[in-house]
């Protein structure tokens, strides 16, 4: 018989740097999760991705056990990394803080595709381009 799900929690944590301090501790402790078990498992599974933000979707069961799925980094994080900027524009309508090529947008869309709500790679590219516009990053051919 399948275990009953108590909660599903999504956290964005730097790879290999999870610890039981806030925000991870309070988010998981209220559901009775073994914090050190989660922290050790997460850090072991993300040790090869240091420097990235890796979202984890944690499914917590009634008996206190859990399982988690690692997702791809947030689109904004990948765009900033590819454009070589520290942050997006304060006012994306009047400011441009960087540029990406269509090829870089395609690479980001391919990396994010399985976590996106898109039917094909072209639709995923349009979503990434929209995020670029909101961040003040220009997409050039």
TrEMBL record:
Pfam family of the protein (one): Ribosomal_L11
Maturation and modification: One or more lysine residues are methylated.
Any one Gene Ontology BP term: translation
GO cellular component: a single term: cytosolic large ribosomal subunit
InterPro entries: Ribosomal_uL11, Ribosomal_uL11_bac-typ, Ribosomal_uL11_C, Ribosomal_uL11_C_sf, Ribosomal_uL11_CS, Ribosomal_uL11_N, Ribosomal_uL11_N_sf
Keywords, comma-separated and alphabetical: Methylation, Ribonucleoprotein, Ribosomal protein, RNA-binding, rRNA-binding
Domain Large ribosomal subunit protein uL11 N-terminal, first and last residues per copy: 9-66
Keyword Nucleus carried by entry: no
GO MF entry, a single one: large ribosomal subunit rRNA binding
Large ribosomal subunit protein uL11 C-terminal domain residues: 71-139
Gene3D superfamilies in alphabetical order: Ribosomal protein L11, C-terminal domain, Ribosomal protein L11/L12, N-terminal domain
The keyword RNA-binding is annotated on this UniProt entry: yes
Database matches in PANTHER family: 60S RIBOSOMAL PROTEIN L12 (PTHR11661), LARGE RIBOSOMAL SUBUNIT PROTEIN UL11M (PTHR11661:SF1)
Family, per entry: Belongs to the universal ribosomal protein uL11 family.
NCBIfam families attached to this UniProt entry: L11_bact
Quaternary context: Part of the ribosomal stalk of the 50S ribosomal subunit. Interacts with L10 and the large rRNA to form the base of the stalk. L10 forms an elongated spine to which L12 dimers bind in a sequential fashion forming a multimeric L10(L12)X complex.
Function: Forms part of the ribosomal stalk which helps the ribosome interact with GTP-bound translation factors.
Name listed for the protein in its UniProt record: Large ribosomal subunit protein uL11
Taxonomic lineage from the root: Bacteria, Bacillati, Chloroflexota, Candidatus Thermofontia, Phototrophicales
């Amino acid at each position: 018989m399948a275990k009953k799900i108590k909660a599903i929690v999504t956290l964005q944590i730097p790879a290999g740097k999870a610890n039981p301090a806030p925000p991870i501790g309070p988010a998981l402790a209220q559901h009775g999760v073994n914090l050190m078990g989660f922290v050790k498992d997460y850090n072991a599974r993300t040790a090869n991705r240091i420097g990235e933000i890796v979202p984890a979707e944690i499914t917590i069961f009634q008996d206190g056990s859990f399982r988690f799925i690692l997702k791809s980094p947030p689109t904004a994080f990948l765009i900033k990394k590819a454009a070589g900027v520290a942050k997006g524009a304060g006012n994306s309508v009047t400011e441009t803080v960087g540029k990406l090529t269509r090829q870089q947008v395609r690479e980001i869309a391919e990396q994010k595709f399985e976590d996106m709500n898109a039917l094909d790679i072209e639709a995923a590219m349009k979503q990434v381009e929209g995020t670029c516009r909101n961040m003040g990053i220009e997409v050039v051919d």
